[in-house]
Design goal:
Helices cover 41% and strands 13% of the residues. It contains 22 helices and 14 strands. Bound molecules: 2',3'-dideoxycytidine 5'-triphosphate (DCT) and magnesium ion. The site of magnesium ion has 5 residues, from helix 16. Pfam families: BRCT (PF00533), DNA_pol_B_palm (PF14792), DNA_pol_B_thumb (PF14791), DNA_pol_lambd_f (PF10391), HHH_8 (PF14716).
Length: 522
């Protein structure tokens, strides 16, 4: 089969649309076209329909004319992870009149233009690369573009095509982390992250050729899964006493690896036994962890996160109408569930230092507060270090467990109706609630107070993912001789801090293509 034939089969455009090449999109009419002399077509292949629809919508909102289907009126064709040859073959088949005038661009031109709010000038790096000739019988195209070893130079959506491998590698990585085997942890975490960014599924070992981040150990796991469908190392680990105990104990809010290992060493194997022990002392956090264990270990859904957002916003705006509450963490990356809900609250510099306390008090007053742990700002302790990635930052923050009325979430889902507070109940009423129908769910919430000038850096840091952040800092340090943390960016050569109002500006300081939050699921 010819390359062009196989491309048609793989659906650059859906079959039923192929005949109607001159049809013009109707959803464009909702938005005014600001840039009259260009018309964009975005190729669906290797991108997926949902991402494509999202990007089309985004461009239209910004005043670009975008066609649903390929036609003679298209001037700029935008594609992700397809080579010039592939797109050119396909265009030849369409027999367009002005094919030789078409600008054939990779997604970087599109994202640069979206960030600039206008079509940017086409640079060499925006143009599609010619792919080295493949042997016609080779079933696996090699990567068309060089894939970076840094997650911050890759686009990792939630559409993970290599889940069978990443699930296994993640379990093994976690165990290396438990065992404080840093180098093995890093190797497994990086390989996992790279697999998540691939626009195709690995179907044979040769597909790993030329990719960074794979060593002997990670290759061996992938090879075994390709042959047997499972990894014996993972199977063994899932039956391992110590691993099971560590997983179980650290699933309690407030229990870290040290405590988990202590309990394991003392012979404990179940949470029931730990809770029943007369000798063990628990912190306030762990007591809350046990009390709300089931709810906290039951993932937070997006409607729940949105209901919490509404509650927090209402209270925050009551005290500071100008403050901005931003939902961040996994939900900002487009995840539908999370283990908690993370919010940044950005305030003008002059913000009352008791602001966060007032919010917490109000939550308490409304009967919504089950637990809180206030952490004061430690800006004076900030040390610029390129050696170690410091997960914690120096902002004032509060780790909470909130009591979310389930009816509130149901109402939001059913009718998106307005929010009312959960019915207040006594905090100490746990035994009583168990005998009644429980109409609320305990939700883990993080609130972080961020001064406006540091907002973009805090947003970038708190959006994650963990691996994306690690690689962003590693890239910044090794490739740019700069230091990045949740507060700012320091240029070691020029000895200056670089200001940024938006995440786009931070990426630009680092000479990185902008990666959207939903592409940071590394
Ligand atoms: N973060 C980080 N390094 C850590 C912990 C957190 O860079 N060690 C950043 C990345 C994500 C963000 O803070 C919020 O942290 P979590 O809530 O733990 O992560 P999440 O991606 O929101 O995961 P989940 O969806 O499960 O809440
Ligand atoms: Mg989170």
């Amino acid at each position: 089969m010819s390359l062009a034939g196989s491309l048609g089969g793989m659906g650059i455009i859906p079959k039923r649309k192929r005949q109607k090449v001159t049809e013009v999109c109707s959803s464009q009419s909702k938005h005014q076209v600001r840039f009259q002399d260009l018309t964009i077509f975005i190729v669906e292949r290797k991108m997926g329909s949902s991402r494509r629809s999202f990007l089309m919508d985004l461009a239209r909102k910004k005043g670009f004319r975008v066609e649903d289907v390929m036609s003679d009126s298209v001037t700029h064709i935008v594609t992700e992870n397809n080579s010039w040859d592939e797109i050119w073959d396909w265009i030849q088949n369409l027999k367009l009149l002005n094919a030789d005038k078409l600008k054939m661009l990779n997604i970087s031109w599109f994202t640069d233009s979206m960030a600039a709010g206008k079509p940017v000038e086409i640079e060499e790096r925006h143009k599609l690369q010619v792919q080295k000739m493949l042997q016609s019988n080779s079933p696996l195209p090699p990567p068309v573009v060089t894939i970076s070893q840094y997650a911050c130079q890759r686009r990792s959506t939630l559409n993970n095509r290599n889940k069978i491998f990443t699930d296994a590698l993640e379990i093994l990585a976690e165990n290396f982390e438990f065992n404080e085997n840093e180098s093995a942890y890093v190797a497994f975490a990086r390989a996992t992250s790279l697999l998540k960014s691939l626009p195709y599924t690995i179907s044979k070992m040769a597909a790993l050729d030329g990719l960074p981040c794979f060593g002997d150990q990670t290759r061996a796991i992938i090879e075994e899964i390709l042959e047997d469908g499972v990894s014996s190392k993972v199977d063994d680990l899932l039956c391992d006493e110590k691993y099971k105990a560590r997983k179980l104990f650290t699933s309690v809010f407030g229990v870290g690896l040290k405590t988990a290992d202590k309990w394991y060493g003392q012979g404990f194997r179940t949470l029931e036994a730990v809770k029943a022990s007369k000798d063990l002392k628990f912190t306030k956090m762990q007591k809350a962890g046990f009390l709300y264990y089931e709810d906290i270990n039951n993932a937070v859904t997006r409607p729940e996160a949105e209901a919490v957002a509404q509650i927090i916003e209402t209270i925050v705006h009551n005290y500071a109408p100008d403050a901005i509450v931003t939902l961040t963490g996994g939900f900002r990356r487009g995840k539908e569930t999370g283990h908690d809900v993370d919010f940044l609250i950005s305030c003008p510099e002059t913000m009352d230092e008791n602001f966060l306390r007032k919010i917490v008090n109000k939550l308490d007053f409304r009967g919504l507060l089950l637990y809180y742990d206030m952490v004061e700002a430690t800006f004076e302790k900030r040390k610029l270090s390129s050696q170690k990635y410091d997960a914690m930052d120096h902002f004032q923050k509060c780790f909470l467990i909130l009591k979310l009325n389930k009816a509130l979430v149901k109402n939001r889902v059913l009718s998106m109706s307005s929010v009312s507070a959960a019915r207040p109940t006594d905090e100490g009423a746990e035994p009583e609630v168990k005998t009644q129908i429980k109409d609320w769910k305990a939700i883990r919430v993080d609130l972080v107070i961020v001064p406006t000038q540091q907002f973009a850096y805090a947003l970038l840091g708190w959006t994650g993912s963990r691996q994306f952040e690690r690689d962003l800092r590693r890239y910044t340090n090794h490739e740019k001789s700069m230091i990045l943390d949740n507060h700012g960016l320091y240029d070691r050569k020029k000895k200056i801090f670089l200001n940024a109002k938006t995440e786009e500006e931070i990426f630009a300081h680092l000479d990185l293509e902008y990666i959207e939050p939903w592409e940071r699921n590394a």
